[in-house]
Design a protein that fits this description.
By secondary structure, the chain is of the alpha+beta class. Helices cover 43% and strands 11% of the residues. One of its GO terms (cellular component) is membrane.
Length: 973
């Protein structure tokens, strides 16, 4: 509806603007006037008294009976000498030259709901009153309601009208103290429309009407003015609202539709894409040819101080912490030859045809010895282990896995642990490292009794499965381990140089810039992947290195290469203990010592070279030309009868024989490990304390690594923001039909009867859809944050990484991803739906909900298998979204005394935030407190709602961190 000018009374609305023709009121309560339109004399009937009957083209039209009687247009207003043809009603369709009369049918009825009641039949009594009104310009005698047979209900008496006037947001154009606001019962079509929430025209001349969208009605309600350009006016506006910067708001705008956020988002996307393209071009430009890499390698050999080291066996000076010597006397401990000459034995030199660096292996190893000596001393790198009557029995098990295992492992030696499946090999290594707490016996490290976890920073462990990050290159994987675990006083330049030497010793320079890849989609070979796993531990300069079946899954050549590397590593002074399964002859001979287990007991412990002689002394025959390692494996696996015709060959008998030969075991080990002095113990402790970067540097390194991973996995990020954008578009399209009006309440007193059907649920339902969509968008990537790396976390935690630094680095790395995903969801949704809530307030609420879903998904990823995580996390997020106080409402839940459960869901706080921001602006027009009570939400707590979303998201991350540490605790030791 529109009002022309500032007219206060009915007569001015009837008579102004153009010459008038005959006029009457029909029995439907509509005004009908004869005029010429589209070259045809026709009667126009309208129900809305605020519209000028002689202007506009809305309403019902009836052709005049006598088209030739043009003089009837000039007849007196009380003349109806040329009546309407009531047989066929019409409406006018089209614009300009395309305007035409269209016959009204049940299929195309599109007139104003108030005009539906227009009949065109003259109501003589009402028309007489109208004629009188036109002649005397007074409204007292007008029909108070247009619906025949209805009686108006006075909403405000004269005193109340004088006291309060017209309510804010209403148009009371015809009302005065003598004609106060009234309520007229609506016609059936109007009543149906009001029940459907549609605002209908007034049913009488004195009935107030809410100011229509696109217009505003200043206080007093005397006029309805078109909303000016640059502003928007929602339904019931009493003043125009400034549109946000960048919004397109022509005159008569009723919602704020800003393009600026979309433009900024597109600009941000273009900036990111440009940065990625530039980075990719630069990366391709930095790729070197083999010839250039060779020249660079030769240059490094000249400038690196390590390259000038001689290949003689020299005693390096001890390291000092201030004036305190670190491990100055540990060098006196007896052990295998760990000199650089031994490391450069021709039997253990590397010769790979695909090696990029042409330096001799002996020079590489010599340089690595010098680098390792900076961590401890070259003569005291290794750790010695002693164990007596060692046993381990899991909780709830009646059978021990280990029992009465006694022996010693000297520092700087190369040990192989062998046995049949179930013999206790892995359990023994885990107990010796401190991953499992032994249930009996004693373990010692360098003569000191205690748990090995104390020294986990200087003990390396290579699991059977190559646990490396597939997105990183060979060098990046090894460098991260070095940065985290090398002494804290090392510079990054020192770490880079140390990694360079490790790569050379492991013959990996030619693939150092290649991504490792996964086992399902490998990039480098299996042998190279295994060497990367070893290099990650060697780069940390361990004093002891444990490996679980390093040759598993490799071909014979690759397995031999790995064992030669380990042999050379042990010659550096690092104690190497490896579990071996079915070794070939060359691999078996590479071992210094072997520990053979059967049924959790020791069968043999000693020199590898003496193992065959020991079993031959026990009566076993070794076939000529056969691999002695295969024969020994058959014997300790219970197949000894194949090699011994007479006598007992059971495993239990072999265990008893070894027990009786304890003196032989002592002779085989060569010497007992001496007890270190107090100075040595303190020095070793101080050395361990110096290991590892500070927690904040570890956080930085983990954060940088996580960003690099996400960059390498750009496709998943593109998929996430694409889903976010598509979801935002679809939800926006679903809400755009609401025209930005998501709430209808009961008008303030005394206009309650004028209210349409109340709508308290649209805003909560909109927030419910947002919660469901956010769960679909954020759950899968939230699971992948930790779900893909639990094994990597366990490996790093067991080697002394700061757990909190790792976790915080991963959490911080997800923040840019969450921000971009939330932006791509919020911007198209807000542009299409245009709720009263500002896009900034919606973005913050959505971002915090994304923060909650990411945290919740992290919790799920800690307790589920990797392949099940995305599905379970998505289902969990949908449940959380449904528990949002919409269906059932929070008010209903309160009757169940279950409000606490709903309040524990972030969906409830999101819904409450949306309810506050979309409903509170209508406080002047509607009674919103009953709406809040009916839904159960609290109004005016937007800041609290956001704070609770942040707290819940943080709590989920605390729970996830606790679960990360609790589940599979043993693997973290």
């Amino acid at each position: 509806m529109t009002a022309e000018g500032g007219s206060h009374n009915f007569s001015s609305g009837v008579t102004e603007t153009r010459p008038t023709g005959p006029l009457f009121i029909d029995d439907g309560g509509c005004r009908c006037a004869l005029q010429e339109e589209l070259g045809t004399e026709a009667w126009r009937c309208i129900a809305n008294t605020t519209n000028n009957i002689y202007s506009g083209q809305t309403g019902k039209w009836f052709f005049a009976v006598n088209q030739a009687n043009s003089a009837s247009l000039q007849d007196l207003p009380n003349s109806d000498s040329n009546p309407p043809d009531l047989s066929t009603p019409y409406f006018i369709e089209g614009e300009g030259q395309n305007e035409k009369f269209v016959e009204i049918t049940s299929e195309n009825e599109n007139t104003d709901l108030g005009d539906v009641t227009c009949s065109g039949k003259n109501d003589t009594e009402a028309s007489s009153d109208l004629y009188k009104e036109v002649s005397v310009s007074t409204t007292e005698s007008l029909s108070p309601c247009w619906q025949p047979g209805t009686t108006p209900l006075i909403l405000q008496d004269a005193s109340e009208w004088n006291a309060t006037g017209c309510n804010l947001g209403f148009l009371c154009q015809n009302n005065t103290a003598s004609n106060p606001p009234t309520y007229c019962p609506p016609s059936p079509p109007a009543q149906i429309a009001r029940l459907e929430g549609v605002t209908t025209p007034p049913m009488g001349p004195y009935e107030p009407v809410v100011c229509q969208k696109g217009n505003y009605c200043p206080p007093g309600g005397t006029q309805q003015i078109i909303c000016p350009s640059g502003h928007f006016c929602s339904i019931g506006a009493y003043e125009p609202t400034q549109c946000s910067f960048g919004a397109l708001c022509p005159p008569a705008s009723y919602r704020d539709r800003s393009l600026l956020p979309l433009i900024l988002l597109i600009a941000l996307d273009l900036l990111i894409i440009s940065a990625i393209l530039v980075s990719k071009i630069q990366w391709n430009g930095r790729r070197e040819s083999p010839r250039r890499r060779s020249r660079r390698a030769k240059h490094l050999r000249k400038v690196l101080p390590f390259s000038r080291l001689g290949a003689q066996n020299e005693q390096y000076l001890p390291i000092y912490d201030g004036n305190f010597p670190l491990e100055s006397r540990i060098s006196g401990v007896r052990r295998a030859n760990t000199s650089s000459l031994a490391a450069m034995d021709n039997d253990f030199a590397f010769h790979e045809s695909n090696a990029v660096d042409d330096e001799r292996s002996d020079s590489n190893i010599q340089q690595l010895v010098q680098s390792l000596s900076r961590c401890t001393t070259a003569a005291s790198i290794g750790l010695s282990f002693e164990f007596a009557n060692l046993s381990y029995q899991p909780k709830g098990s009646n059978q021990p896995i280990l029992s009465q295992v006694t022996g010693g492992i000297t520092s700087g030696s190369f040990w192989g642990i062998m046995g049949a499946s179930g013999a206790g090999k892995s359990t023994f290594v885990n107990v010796l490292m401190g991953k499992h707490s032994h249930t009996g016996g004693v373990t010692k490290i360098n003569g000191g009794t205690g748990i090995s976890s104390k020294y986990k920073k200087v003990i390396g462990y290579v699991p059977q499965d190559d646990i490396v990050l597939p997105e990183l290159t060979v060098r990046e994987n090894i460098l991260h381990s070095a940065r985290i675990r090398l002494p804290s006083d090392w510079s990054d330049k020192d770490a880079q140089r140390h990694v360079e030497l490790v790569l050379k010793c492991l013959q990996l320079p030619h693939v150092q810039n290649s991504r490792v890849g996964s086992t399902a989609a490998p990039v480098i070979s299996g042998g190279e992947r295994k060497r990367v796993s070893i290099g990650m531990e060697l780069a940390a300069a361990p004093m002891a290195l444990f490996l679980d079946e390093p040759t598993s899954g490799l071909d014979a050549t690759s397995a031999s290469s790995i064992m030669l590397i380990l042999k050379a590593v042990s010659r550096l002074g690092i104690t190497v203990v490896t579990i071996i399964h079915q070794p070939r002859h060359e691999i078996f001979e590479a071992l210094d010592n072997v520990l053979l287990l059967g049924a959790g007991r020791v069968i043999y412990s000693g020199k590898e070279a003496k193992a065959q002689a020991y079993f031959e002394d026990c009566g076993f025959n070794f076939p000529e030309g056969h691999n002695p390692a295969d024969t020994i494996m058959d014997i300790i696996a219970g197949q000894g009868h194949l090699y011994k015709k007479l006598g007992d060959t059971d495993v239990s008998h072999l265990i008893e024989q070894w027990t009786y030969r304890q003196d032989a075991m002592k002779a085989a080990t060569g010497f007992p490990c001496p007890s270190p002095s107090d100075v040595e113990i303190v020095a070793l402790d101080r050395t361990v304390q110096m290991r590892g970067a500070s927690w904040y540097r570890q956080t930085y390194f983990c954060l940088s690594r996580a960003f690099l991973q996400q960059y390498r996995l750009r496709s998943s990020f593109y998929a996430e923001i694409s889903v976010a954008t598509l979801t935002g578009l679809l939800l926006g399209l679903a809400e755009t039909s609401e025209d930005g009006i998501n709430f209808r309440g009961i008008f303030h007193h005394p206009y309650e009867l004028l209210s349409s059907s109340a709508d308290y649920s649209s805003v909560p339902e909109m927030s419910l859809l947002i919660g469901l969509a956010s769960g679909i968008i954020a759950s899968p990537p939230g699971v992948r944050v930790f779900g893909e790396e639990k094994l990597m976390y366990a490996r790093e935690a067991s080697s002394g990484h700061n757990r909190f630094a790792y976790y915080i680095g991963k959490v911080l790395s997800t923040l840019p991803r969450m921000i971009l995903s939330s932006l791509h969801f919020t911007m198209p949704f807000m542009y299409l739906s245009t709720p009263r809530m500002s896009w900034g307030a919606a973005f913050i609420a959505n971002l915090l909900y994304f923060y909650c879903i990411y945290g919740l998904s992290s919790c799920v990823s800690m307790v589920t298998r990797r392949e099940d995580g995305p599905l379970i996390a998505t289902m969990t997020s949908l449940v959380v979204a449904i528990i949002s106080g919409v269906r059932p409402s929070l008010h209903t839940v309160g009757g169940w005394h279950m409000t606490w459960l709903w309040r524990a869901s972030p969906g409830t706080w999101l819904s409450e935030a949306y309810f506050t921001e979309n409903v509170t602006p209508y406080r002047y027009l509607y009674q919103i407190d009953p709406a809040a009570a009916g839904t159960g939400f609290n109004l005016g707590h937007y800041s609290l709602d956001l704070a609770m979303l942040f707290m819940l998201g943080t709590l989920y991350r605390v729970i996830a961190f606790g679960a990360l540490r609790v589940f599979n605790r043993r693997s973290h030791r």
